[in-house]
Amino acid sequence: xxxxxxxxxxxxxxxxxxxxxAEYVADQIQQSEMKWCSKKEGIIVNVHDEIVxxxxxxxxxNSEVEVDVRFTADTLLPEIGDAFTGKVWKIFNEGVFLQxxxxxxxxxxxxxxxxxxxxxxGKSATCESGSISLGTLLDGSVTGVRYKTGKFNVIGTFKSMxxx
Length: 164
What we know:
About 10% of the residues lie in helices and about 60% in strands. It is built from 1 helix and 13 strands.
């Protein structure tokens, strides 16, 4: 995870103009930017408190009031080779899906999990390292990343099971 400086433009309604504009814009950034995703900056996990506003301007396109906002945020940008710990949220014949930081989903193919076998119940699996069920923590590394339509598709490989 990295801390990055991000600049966005926020449209401000007439009711928010005046002394309360900074609070309005800060609330908008906190609400709308969490989990926002771009290929360049990654997924916003946390917006820091310091938010800097430019002078409001009127848009040439539609006469709305706009403010450029600069803020820092913790972002998650998956790259090949990155190590991660994730919680199993889906188990199926072809592998498992992990949730990392409640934001990023990573597919771990069965072929990368030594001895992987899904149990007949369909709710758990076994492998050489032990039993895998929903909520199990697994360690792995990213082996493939593709960005498409506002989200990352990530494939990883199994490294080990993590004790809670």
